[in-house]
Write the structure tokens for this entry.
Amino acid sequence: MSEQYYKTTESVEEYIKLAKDVNGAELIDKLKIFLPIGATVLEIGTGPGSDWEILNEDYSVTGSDFSVQFLERLIKKYPKGEFLELDATTLESDQQFDAIYSNKVMHHLKNDEIKASIQRQYELLNHNGIICHSFWKGEGSEVFKGMFVNYHTIDALKTLFAPKYEILLMEDYNEFEDNDSILLIAKKK
């Protein structure tokens, strides 16, 4: 994972500026089709908190990040919120959730880390739990501004997730360019 990028005040501030007009409202609207209001949700990679705010309108959300810089900001901004310091691969928590959500976080993991995260998410989910993740679409990987980015295709994601999850929705969507992203919503088998 891009361990160092989100650990400095400068990089966190840079990311907040880059992402200030971006949120997962459309993704969350699609999640609502499959996840009842009031469900418990773990958000992986809460970052500045934009999606946490939207999710928190309808769900009982626990935010998480591995960046202490982000966590300190989140706790200050949302003093009544629950936030955990978690790595997206190991997800070391004893809590159980109805759903796990991330918006452009899992693409920072290498394929073996994604497999470990998929297994760990499976363990943290309640019976029939839902996952909702977005990824950058493409092939290969690169380091962008010091962050590892692992691109995925729909077929590659099916291969990774299908052994443990029933795919409910898998579709391309536009974040910055036509069909540059993939949304995956699936249910624990």
Residues 111-124 form the longest helix (14 residues).
